[in-house]
Each structure stands twice: as structure tokens, then as C-alpha cells.
Design goal:
single chain, 149 residues, mainly alpha, 2 domains, 6 helices, membrane, Tripartite tricarboxylate transporter TctB family protein
Amino acid sequence: MLQRAFRRQDTWAGLMFLGVGIAALWIGRDYPTGTATSMGPGFFPDLLSFLLCGIGALVTLRGLIADGEKITGTALRPFLVLVAVALFALAVTSGGLVPAIVVLTVVGACAGHEFRLHEVAALTLALAVFSVAVFDWALGMHLPLWPAW
């Protein structure tokens, strides 16, 4: 019974919600919560984390009790989008904005159905020029554009 329950999508989705909620509670543990009339900076994140944990518990229980859809396989494309965003976050601080945009668009394009090099190159160039124009020139946020060698 329990082995079949862990093959259901609801069980894993609920456990994921629980995990994210618990992680958010742990990350924000040092923020003062305050009271309902005098809210501290940790009040709203704690409230959302508790709600997420509650939803996760309900969805997990539903997955354990009721019959639901079984997990058929792992989709790689949505995972590649998450990897692209994570790589961008790592690359923008160490490698600069322009190389980070190249990494983001190339890895993100790999998540699509078709990978056309000329389209990816044009998109990369357009995003890089637009980002430099907006963040560096228009807003004056002087991010490192290239790696500091």
C-alpha cells in the first residue's frame, strides 16, 4: 500500500511543498516575527511558509489515501529551465552579465523542442544588448559586464 502511494504524483507534490515550506521556515528563522498588530520582517514569510506546509500536508495525505495519477516519467525540459536560471545566478556574479546571458539563453534553448543556432544567437545578442542598455546605461546599475580577469 505505502509503496503504491509513493508512485502517485500527489504524494510527491505534497512532499515537495512540505520541503519548500520547512526550508523557508528554517531560512527565515532569524527574522523577528512580531505580533499581528506589530509585524516584524519575518511575519509574512513565516505565514506563507506555514500555509505552504499545511497545503503540502493536505496534498501528501490525499496522495497517500486516494487513488491518483501515477508518475510516468521525468520531464527533462522543465528541469533545464531551472538549471538555466540557476546557472545565470551563478554566472552573473562571477562571470559578468553578458556571459551569464549567453549561458541562460543557450541552456534555456536546449529546453525547447527545436534548437536553431541562428535563432539562439540572435536572441542571445538581443538580450545582451537590451540588458546592458537597461541595467547599465538607463538605470545606472553598474553590474560587471565581463569577467574580471
